[in-house]
Write a structure and sequence with these properties.
Helices cover 27% and strands 23% of the residues. It is of the alpha/beta class. The longest helix is centred in the first third of the chain and has 15 residues, at 10-24.
Amino acid sequence: MKFKSKKDMYPDVSIWLTNFLKDRFSKAHIEVYELSQNPISNFLRTYDHGKFPEEWVTWNIKVDVVGFVHAPNKPSALVFVECKNTKLTLAHLSQLLGYSRIAQPIYSFLVSPAGFSTTLISLLQKYQRRDVLEYYWETGKIPRKIVVAQWDRSAANLNRHNMIGGSGI
């Protein structure tokens, strides 16, 4: 079931992301913000937590919900959730792929309660083009991939039955 607007998703998605990150990074300090109207670079100018790469000043990107993971003795990490209130399309994936290539979050999610467009599902499942989900490669590690998922409004969680790219989530 869709929301009146995608902004109506943000509170539930923020709570879910906070819990998701606290489960995975129990010793880290976790913060989650709705930044759809504020470029990450502007937000970081006044944000007094964590260590980020010097190029953060170039991150003139707006991601709907952003998580910050501050683990002891490690650089701070980002997590992106881009919300849509329509069926997810290749254009939506391309937008988040660009943002993820720029800022290299540890997780990147594209979610919608409306599910997936036929062309996106065809590309990812029928033609098995999961490579288009990849945004960061480290030698000797599995590439980081965007997780494409339907948002289950009643459960306030990802629908794990049709999630794509989220092995191990």
